[in-house]
Amino acid sequence: MNIDMITAAAERARGHIRRTPLLSSPFLDDIAGRRVLVKPECLQHTGSFKARGAWSAVSALEPTQLQAGVIAFSSGNHAQGVAHAAREHGASAVIIMPSDAPRAKIDNTRGLGAEVVLYDRATEDRDEIGERMAAERGLTLIKPFDDPQVIAGQGTTGLEIAEQADEAGVDTADVLVCCGGGGLTSGIALALEAKAPGLRPRPAEPEGFDDVARSLAVGSIQRNPRLTGSICDAIITPQPGNLTFPIMARLCGPGVTVTEDQALHAMALAFHRLKLVLEPGGAVALAAALFRPEAVQGDAVIAVASGGNVDADLFASALARFAP
Amino acid sequence: MNIDMITAAAERARGHIRRTPLLSSPFLDDIAGRRVLVKPECLQHTGSFKARGAWSAVSALEPTQLQAGVIAFSSGNHAQGVAHAAREHGASAVIIMPSDAPRAKIDNTRGLGAEVVLYDRATEDRDEIGERMAAERGLTLIKPFDDPQVIAGQGTTGLEIAEQADEAGVDTADVLVCCGGGGLTSGIALALEAKAPGLRPRPAEPEGFDDVARSLAVGSIQRNPRLTGSICDAIITPQPGNLTFPIMARLCGPGVTVTEDQALHAMALAFHRLKLVLEPGGAVALAAALFRPEAVQGDAVIAVASGGNVDADLFASALARFAP
Q1: H and E: helices and strands count for chain A
Q2: Which residue of A90, B90, B122, B131 is surrounded by the most CB atoms within 10 Å?
Q3: Residue of A nearest to B48 (CA)
Q4: pLDDT digits (tens, 9 = 90+) for A247-265
């Protein structure tokens, strides 16, 4: 993994992946006590940064691989990212999803042209299903985070942050990144190392699911004690990846955690002050910027809002609970 | 009014006004039956395009005028745009608002540093109050739309649309613009005339408040029969302006209208498919693109989403009523 892979991914993504803006509001600055700059990846194709990594991975395939098609395991944002990238490349995509995944996510993935294969979490082994289909059809697996091309694609977010922070006059700041398996965080870290070394990437996680923060603290991969029960489901993974963790260990500052209520409050503030729709997992970094000011250093903080694929009911409840 | 004033306004706005992206979703394309490109001015500073016109007008003032300060009449988006532009120029701003304006809008305008003067709609004459304060302090009035520099500022939206449509491979399309007094529509029309003559600007309005559509149809300024009772309050004005109407009459295609329910439905779809927060008046053009396909021509349509300053309750009710 190096910066050249990220710049190459950015080149392949030109005209296909959105350059999201860098947004701000004086009202958010007042809450945080410093400038807050938000990178809204909810505005990316498919509503999350996952479209970047999927594009990078699919666009790096050989023609024979594209012809055979791709496969992915996901109940959420990675599914839609892979479906989108495959369709735009004229490739078929099989997405293995649990049968109890939200109906909207299944419908959206199908709506993007993918073949969705549902499995029963209780009685079926998704890996067995996936391996059999991949073998039968010669499909290429697109992993959600622990893949060099996926990390390179997520790293294009960091190239944009480096340029946009410079335009905003910010050369020293913490960059808080909503973190699951670490693909986005490690990709951004590699980009910033090369392009904006004064910007310090830091993973942001929900309390109780802070495997990355704990892994960074002790210097070895730690697991989450549980994987369910968080509204921040988009960024919950068992543990950091074998590729992503060494990058984060070398380049990333300490992790920061927030409560679920802080994530919901950040969603409400993003609605009122930035006119953005964030999902709980996508609001964790903004929540840390706003409500954990003592854990952040510098006159400015950059928060990556990783996605916005949230159900209307949950969104409305966040608005009802937290006034501006 | 000419294109040079718009390019000059864009030059003065550089680094101060956001270049909003041009967004799309295959799910919206499917509904409309053609490509739909959305220009989200809800992401502009203060949550609406009004920040552009206010910036243009304030940045064109003489130093002595800036020192004395500015004044505006508004219960909504123009108030926040003027307050923001004045503060960034180090100028004071007086905003005359009705005492029954939404509390959030009053608070936001004060939060942006303006001096808010409330008047009673029933017993006081806002023009008299404004004229007296302007005379006493030497304040410069910033009009909401019928001012050349305001129109030039709104026209910077059109410069961006011309460039972004070209990047998207679109050189022929209807450009639907949420239209109140016509500042945004006429400014965009002037920009497109010079930079993208294949793009045809068309005002979009709510049914029952279609003064611009009717004015264009008969060739003279027509009034709305009433000014209250619409949830699209952000774009309700008595009639098109004396400056904006001749520009629209020369350059704009026929107006298109939508129902309030279509505007609310478009808000819900912008939430699900674009992760954007739109206010009802700001969703009218998108609603026309989605739900009045027979009234639109061409393989692609561009919809300007003019603002996103909506109360949480109204937004939640739109989500509850309209599933994706």
Answers
A1: 14, 9
A2: B131
A3: A275
A4: 999 999 899 999 999 999 9
